[in-house]
Amino acid sequence: MEEIYRSGPTAVAVNGIRLVYESFGDEDAPAMLLIAGQGNHMLSWAAPFCTLIAKRGLRVIRFDNRDAGLSTKFTGNPFRNPLRVLASYVRKKPVGLSYTLMDMTKDAVGLLDALHIARAHVVGKSLGGMLAQMMAIHYPDRLLTMTLLMSSTGEFGLPLPRPKMLKLLRPPRYTDRAGYIEHIVKVQRLLHGSGYEFDEESLREYAAAAYERDHGLDGAIRQLSAVIASPGRGKQLRRISTPTLVIHGSEDPLLPVEHGIHAAKIIPNAELLILDGVGHELPPPLWPLVAEVIAEHALRRSPDAGGGQSTPGRMK
């Protein structure tokens, strides 16, 4: 079996904060930056999934966003009232912001700088997809390709989350490790689609590992504030030239599939893959397929693949 190099978690100073990252694969291979979703650790990009991509000849980098995992934590009094959350979404007004999506976008760009990577393939999941869009809009020269997983352009008028998602806005009440794990399982059940078996055992393993790294959830609320306060990106996305792949679950209850369809429609020449029976998730049985599709999308446009890109993948 082919051995894939794995760096192990490493901390770097980026954009005035500390970010923790890990990479898989040859460090001289074209880089692929994976950006996690709201409140998620880099562990949400499972190591076997990262390895599947790295085996295709890419250097895969996952990291903890600010306010998640082992990266810098922020303070403040996160809002807790679901009605206030919804009112803020409709009014598009900031609610106790500790930082913005642009700050988080600069973190991702700063990580590329710290790793001396000039251009990368960027893959963003949910909130991470929003950050990828911001990179494509404001730092287009840093992206080779973009892949959006279960994300949104943030345009007003797109379908709201399904009513059952209101439960996610309730303050979690766990007080210990067991309670944290139960909370994560409960949330993921809400996000799960009908097409694949709910893998509770693997999820509990993930939640246990996440708890040991960081079991606070206030960062997730602060990140949600940043999302709510961010204006829609539709007008700007219509003008980008980054080759884009959109992947979305047909049964996503948080960001309904119309969000993905809309993104693929307005981004020039974007490709769309809808995963039948999938919610706001990436079920393990689909990891080989999705890893293959993401890698193929990237490798067609890597500097050494004859895809018309001449800028080297690493900064000199």
Architecture overview:
The structure is a single chain. With 316 residues, the protein is of the alpha/beta class. The chain has one domain (10-299): Alpha/Beta hydrolase fold, catalytic domain (Rossmann fold, 3-Layer(aba) Sandwich), CATH 3.40.50.1820. It is built from ten helices and eight strands. It has helices at residues 47-54, 82-91, 101-114, 127-138, 177-191, 200-213, 218-229, 234-237, 257-266, 287-299, and strands spanning 10-14, 17-24, 31-35, 59-63, 120-125, 143-149, 244-249, 271-275. Strands 1-2-4-3-5-6-7-8 form an eight-stranded mixed sheet, with helices on both faces. It is globular. Residues 305-316 have low confidence and may be disordered.
Summarize the structure.
Helices cover 35% and strands 15% of the residues. With 316 residues, it is α/β, with parallel strands linked by helices.
Question: What is the strand and helix layout of this fold?
Answer:
Blueprint: E1 10-14, E2 17-24, E3 31-35, H1 47-54, E4 59-63, H2 82-91, H3 101-114, E5 120-125, H4 127-138, E6 143-149, H5 177-191, H6 200-213, H7 218-229, H8 234-237, E7 244-249, H9 257-266, E8 271-275, H10 287-299
Parallel strand pairs: 3-4, 3-5, 5-6, 6-7, 7-8
Antiparallel strand pairs: 1-2, 2-4
